[in-house]
TrEMBL record:
One of its GO terms (molecular function) is heme binding. PROSITE patterns: FAD_FR, GLOBIN. Its EC number is 1.14.12.17. NADP(+) binds at G276, V277, G278, L279, T280, P281. Is involved in NO detoxification in an aerobic process, termed nitric oxide dioxygenase (NOD) reaction that utilizes O(2) and NAD(P)H to convert NO to nitrate, which protects the bacterium from various noxious nitrogen compounds. Therefore, plays a central role in the inducible response to nitrosative stress. Its cofactor is heme b; FAD. It comes from Paenibacillus albilobatus. This is Flavohemoprotein. The keyword Phosphoprotein does not apply. The gene is hmp. The active site is at Y95, E137. Residues 149-399 are annotated as: Reductase.
Length: 399
C-alpha cells in the first residue's frame, strides 16, 4: 500500500511525464537493451525502430502516475497489456530489470530535478504497479496452460497449408506438430509467432490475429507482406513468412490471447469495418456470428486500395450469398475496374448512415489513419462510446 506522501509525489510528476515521457522511455529502452541484450528476443524490433513502443510505454507510465491513487481505473489497460505480456512470455523475473532501468532513465532525463524523494517514490510505486501486472499475468498463464488443448510458452506448429489471398496477403494454416488438441479462442484474438530468420541475431516475435472462427483443428493467420517506405526496411517477419516458410515447415506460437473480442451476448445489429489487413479479426468475428447468432443482422464493410490488395473477397461474397442476415460492402480507394465495388475513395459518414443503422455495435480494425476516420465519423453520428470497439495492430495508441 502506498503512503499518501508517495502518492502526492507521484502525482506531482504527472506534468513532467506529459512533457518528457517519450524521452524517458526512449532512454529506458536504450539502457535496457545495452544492459540486457537477451531481452531483444522478446521485443518487436520494428515497433522499437518506429517509436511505437516508446510512445505506448510513455502513455502507460503517464496513466499509472495520474491514477496512482486509484489504479483500478486503469485495470482494463493493465489487462490488455498483460495479454500481450503473457503471449510474449514475459515473466516475473523481468520486472525488477525493467524497474531498475526505468528509474535510471528518469534520472538521466530529468537530471537534478529527479530528487532522491522522487526516485524513491517511483521505486515504491513501480513495485506496486509491477505486482499488479505479475498477479494479473499469473492468472493468464494458468488459464492458457490449463485450458483444453492449452500449453505454456511456445509450442511448435506445422504449416499445413499456405494460401495466397491477394497480392500482399497470404494465409497460413497451422497444426500442432505433436498432433494434440489446440486451445479454443474468442473471435478477435491473436496468436504470437516466434521465428529466427537466418540473418537475424535474435528471435523475432509478432502477434497475428486469428482470421477464422474458432472450433477447428488448426489456426489460421493471414499475414500482410510489410513493404518498407522508401529508405525503410521491409518487415522482417512478414517477408520471412512469405518468402522462406513453406507447407511442412515448423514455427513456434504461444496460446491465443487478446482483449479485442466480439460480444456475442448482444443481439443488436453488428457492423464490422476493416481496412487492408485489418480484416483478419473481422473475418473471424463474421464467421463466428453467422454460426452462433444466425438471426443477428450483420453488415461487413471492407476498404482496400484496389481489388489486387483485397483478401478473402470471394469467401465473404459466398457468406453473403448464403446468409440472409448478412450484407457486405466493398470500398476501393483507387479501383482498377476489374471487380465491382460499392464505393470509391474512402469510407465516410454519409455512406455509413446509408448502409448501417446508428443503433448497431461497431467493430473496426486497420491502419491508424483509417481507424481515426471511422472513429471520428461514428462519434459525429452520435454512436455511444460503449458501442465503438477497435484494436491497434502493435502497441496501443490513440485515435
Amino acid at each position: 500500500m502506498l503512503t499518501q506522501e508517495t502518492i502526492d509525489i507521484i502525482k506531482s510528476t504527472v506534468p513532467v511525464l506529459e512533457v518528457h515521457g517519450k524521452e524517458i522511455t526512449t532512454v529506458f529502452y536504450q539502457l535496457l537493451f545495452e544492459n540486457h541484450p537477451e531481452l531483444l528476443n522478446i521485443f518487436n524490433h520494428a515497433n522499437q525502430r518506429e517509436g511505437k513502443q516508446q510512445t505506448a510505454l510513455a502513455n502507460a507510465v503517464y496513466a499509472a502516475a495520474a491514477h496512482i491513487d486509484h489504479l483500478e481505473n486503469i485495470l482494463p489497460a493493465v489487462k490488455q497489456i498483460a495479454q500481450k505480456h503473457r503471449a510474449l512470455n514475459v515473466k516475473p523475473e523481468h520486472y525488477p530489470i525493467v524497474g531498475e532501468n526505468l528509474l535510471e532513465a528518469i534520472k538521466t532525463v530529468l537530471g537534478d530535478a529527479a530528487t532522491p524523494e522522487i526516485i524513491n517514490a517511483w521505486a515504491e510505486a513501480y513495485g506496486v504497479i509491477a505486482d499488479a501486472f505479475i498477479g494479473v499475468e499469473a492468472e493468464m498463464y494458468r488459464e492458457a496452460e490449463n485450458a483444453p488443448g492449452g500449453w505454456a510458452g511456445f509450442r511448435p506448429f506445422v504449416v499445413a497449408r499456405k494460401v495466397k489471398e491477394s497480392d500482399v496477403i497470404t494465409s497460413f494454416y497451422l497444426k500442432p506438430r505433436d498432433g494434440g488438441a489446440i486451445s479454443s479462442y474468442l473471435p478477435g484474438q491473436y496468436i504470437t509467432v516466434r521465428v529466427k530468420p537466418e540473418n537475424q541475431p535474435y528471435a523475432q516475435i509478432r502477434h497475428y490475429s486469428l482470421s477464422a472462427a474458432p472450433g477447428g483443428d488448426s489456426y489460421r493467420i493471414s499475414v500482410k507482406r510489410e513493404s518498407g517506405a522508401p529508405g525503410q526496411p521491409d518487415g522482417v517477419v512478414s517477408t520471412y513468412l512469405h518468402d522462406r516458410i513453406y507447407e511442412g515447415d515448423v514455427i513456434e506460437i504461444s496460446a491465443p490471447a487478446g482483449s479485442f473480442t466480439l460480444d456475442t451476448s448482444k443481439s443488436i445489429p453488428l457492423v464490422l469495418i476493416s481496412g487492408g489487413v485489418g480484416l483478419t479479426p473481422m473475418v473471424s468475428m463474421l464467421e463466428t456470428v453467422l454460426k452462433e447468432q444466425p438471426e443477428r443482422k450483420v453488415t461487413f464493410i471492407h476498404a482496400a486500395i484496389n481489388e489486387s490488395f483485397h483478401a478473402m473477397r470471394e469467401h465473404v461474397e459466398q457468406l453473403d450469398a448464403s446468409h440472409d442476415n448478412l450484407k457486405s460492402y466493398i470500398c476501393y480507394e483507387k479501383p482498377l475496374g476489374q471487380v465491382a465495388c460499392h464505393k470509391t475513395g474512402y469510407i465516410d459518414l454519409p455512406w455509413l448512415q446509408e448502409i448501417t443503422s446508428q443503433d448497431s455495435d461497431f467493430y473496426f480494425c486497420g491502419p491508424v489513419p483509417f481507424m481515426s476516420a471511422v472513429n471520428k465519423a461514428l462519434k459525429e453520428w452520435g454512436v455511444p462510446e460503449e458501442r465503438i470497439h477497435y484494436e491497434f495492430f502493435g502497441p496501443a495508441g490513440t485515435l
